Structures
1.
Amino acid sequence: MDKAIVIVGLNHRTAPVEVRERVAFEKAFLKHALERLRSLASVDEGVILSTCNRVEVVAAASDEQAAFREIKRFLVEQESASAGGGNLDEHLYAYAGDQAIRHLFRVAASLDSMVVGEPQILGQLKDYYLIAQEAGSVGAVLHRFFHRAFSVAKRVRTETGIASRAVSVSSVAVELAKRIFDRLENKTVMLIGAGKMGQLVARHLQRNGVSSLMVTNRTFERAVEAAAEFRGNPIRFEEFPRYLKLADLVIGCASAPEFLLRPETVEETLKQRKQRAMFFIDIGDRQNFDPRINEIDNVYLYNIDDLEAVAKENLQGRAGEVRKAEEIVDEEVGGFLRWVGSLDHVPTIVALRQRLEEIRQAELEKSLRSSLKELSEKEKQAIEDMTAAIINKILHAPISRLKRPPDDEDEAIYVEALRKLFGLENK
Amino acid sequence: MDVLLLKGAAILYLVGAGAFIVYAALPRDLLARVSPVVLLAGFLLHGAALGFHFFHLGYPPVTEFREALSLFSWAMVGVYLLAQLKYRLAVLGCVIAPLAFLMSLAAVAFGPGGGELPPALKTYWVPLHVTLAMLGNAVFTLAFAVSLMYLIQEYRLKSKRTTALYKGLPSLETLDRLNYVFLVWGFPLMTLGILAGSFLARAHWGDYWSWDPRQISSAITWLLYGSLLQGRVAAGWRGRKAAFLTIVGFIVVLGYFLWGSSLFPSRHAGSFE
């Protein structure tokens, strides 16, 4: 079989946002677009990917060069459907074979993203793959290709720190909280003050499972407002030290001229909490918490500078992780290329014939040496001929099915099934 | 035969240790799944070694130092594998597997003492006493390992050095809870082991308590772990303090186990030559 994987498209590096917007496919019309894509003579299978940073057509095609031409034209038509346009060609890239494989793997693993390591791209890729599958434009090759890309992305995520490194202040706060606490679902947050950063961190913690939240503010009305927004409980400012013992995480984001909390208060609180750990996050314009709080046992205090330092360090650490991720992609490209190669029907037929012949010879020899050893040479020859004929008869139908020029795109399924059923994988 | 099996087990522990340490440096799902299996294989082989030895001797192989050491490491790996089933803590293996390797290697290196067990000690109090004590030690070793991890993780969080190798460590809360779990399991085992020991002392030395160095060191660790447990339950000791005391207790146990009897001669010898 002769199927090439091709990718034609543009992304945030090759095209400015106006161009990307003009080419973008709306989800509502995607099904229609996929139909048009499949109607191209050279395209057997196709998936269209359209996010704000990239528009790409991934296809399995019978003829690489024809597919490049036709898909480019397809995208130009898509662009000219909206106002403006022209010169799309200079923004397009076109990959085939191992380059195309590497490209999709890198996209899935978020190595090609504007913010490397951001996790959304994998979900988007899965969405667009599903749309194409529902539209019936995915066959055996793209099915395998995309699923492999998903598993490459998973490998990269679990084996490198590319996605796990928090690079924003609020995600660093969450990461630290997860090192102190087992799980966040049963933890309570107290938010002191109404600063923007504090709210951001609180929201991030809520997204990571924190369900209980108290809000306090010098102006009680603002505490009530914020509490409504976060579905938390407002607390009067004078009373917050009394409630402190309920809080596992305390976010300070007030602009008070003096410290809101002194070590003595925290020590007292900790006694009431039976020494259960507390995490203080100080991210106001001024310092809200006395730095000496960090010296108390089972208490951890991070201020904005600490959090930023961690974020910066993580950002630097990412470079090394990217290198590791690229190595994983390289490895996987090789593996996938071997699979594509195995889809060729000629070696499969040879291997299948060989396998059956081996069985025939072995069984024949066994029988002729034991139970049939009394037979005459002529009779032995007859049995030899008969078994050979049986093999040929059995093989006739599957082999002629494989040799027939591909009339539908699922030929690869047969080749693969055959290899699996007869254990030809290693041949 | 049993020595051969023990060597095999030691090699598997070494392989397991390597796998765990590589896992700590570059966390791969596969390693986290494979390493405990390697350790399990070592555990089974080790169990077979102990079984053979038992069969060969005719009484439980617990009277010589190397035998106790072998039982100790076997119980430790067993307890770890149980904990691994429940808590999925592959990092813990980074401490347990190398320890198991060193201990079983030492058990091989010491070789048989050749001493014949005095007939007076051929009672089932001996294996009961030693088994309980070694199980207790094994559980305390795990308590020690999680406490060590706690201190590392705590130090990094306090000093705000958060990157590098230690991101694979469990959260402080998890480690602290495990410290409690192991303490709750280890303490009764240790208590029963000491009780069995004092019955044995009565039978063999004529008195339950005779100010023998071994008895004194046992009493010290019993008091230490007991007050730690009591402090945790009643006074809310946790975190660094609990981790620190657990480590001190373990050092006393291990220290006496390894060198004590040569510094403070005791009638409670490791071997009976």
2.
Amino acid sequence: MKMLLPFVAVMALVAAALMAVNVANLHFLFGVAIPYIAFAVFTAGFVYRIVKWASSPVPFRIPTTCGQEFSLPWVKQNKIENPSTATGVIIRMALEIFLFRSLFRNIKAELRDGQKIVYGSDKWLWLAGLAFHWTFLVILVRHLRFFVGDVPMSIAMLEHLDGFLQIGVPMIYITDGVILAAIGYLFIRRVLLPQIRYISLPADYFPLFLIAAIVVSGILMRYIVKVDVVGVKNFTMGLVTFTPVIPATLMQGNGAWFFLHVFLISVLFAYFPFSKLMHMGGVFMSPTRNMINNSRMVRHVNPWNYPVHVHTYEEYENDFRDKMKAAGIPVEKE
Amino acid sequence: MYNSGKIIPGIIIFLAIVTFPFWSNAGKTNVKPEPKIDTPAIQQMPEGERKCIESKEFMKAGHMQMLNDWRDSVIRGGDRVFVSSTGKHYNMSLQNECLRCHSNKKDFCDKCHKYLAVKPYCWDCHIEPKENKS
């Protein structure tokens, strides 16, 4: 059920887009209105989530330490895993963001011979995760050729490198194959490992299915159904220059695939701020990763400390001096 | 909000990146490329026979596939005869057949290829046509 629901949802989205374009002729709604709304929801929602997170105080230094902290001169500090300087934190964050350092530590526990529990390193998730995220980024950047008038050298170079193997025409992109394999692994892992399947929710499957559908529709358009690519760029450039046009070549025949692709991406964008995909912004705000471990050097004041009204002993004695004297209690000031 | 000294620049960078397609195209107009088919060779053809070897739609979507097949057929199989869907025979040759009519690479091939940043590797081996620029 946890898997079926998101699958049905994605299939319903696919059917909705194809029906809307092929039967109801809602090209403007699905091609122009929904993408603009989705983009607005994405940006506003993203900023809202970040600001909301930033409103939570992080009063204490809680860096997870994976190495020797800064101490005495003759004790060698691990400057990256347990940074005491901003540079160290920047390197640690860069390793986290670009290479998923934490995931590299992933460990698998297994019962051997019935009773004995053993722990071993498990790099497959890290590898597939890295492959997935990097290919997704390359694919996203590659798509800029549809959103920039004169395509800059850097984007053309990236595309050239991606088609480096020169297999077939149009040249098969390496990333297309890699992202399918990575999504496949990430999905199969959730299904085959009982522990992972147990904790997987519809919100885990939905983005996987949605991204898979986006990738498949993109691959179909490029290699198989051959959507009019000049029309596609004419369309996307219309969107980004706020003069939307829907070329006639996209209104007929296999143009529906393009609207399907655009609609699924719009759904992904609109869904983004409400989902676990927000880890894109969240990774920068991981308190255990982005804090300098300098608790012993700098005083960190709790931000919600408020001035407490203190009633000192001196004031107390002033209030009760007479009574104290009468009872024979010694006082500091006569 | 805490750490606004870092959060606000971060949000500004985020917004600058995601709105890149919008601000980088600000003030530009969206011009669709129109490949020209008015070369002398095409204009000499009688009005009714001004056709490419296959339909326009087919060529638009499949010319790269066709050229690739031609290359394999000629270089690897030694077979230079192409039979079109209408049964006509053509010489499989980029320089001698395609470019005979489409002699205007700059105004024909390059129009869409430049628009979409496509760099076909035809001209790694073939000689690029030297167009008479008057």
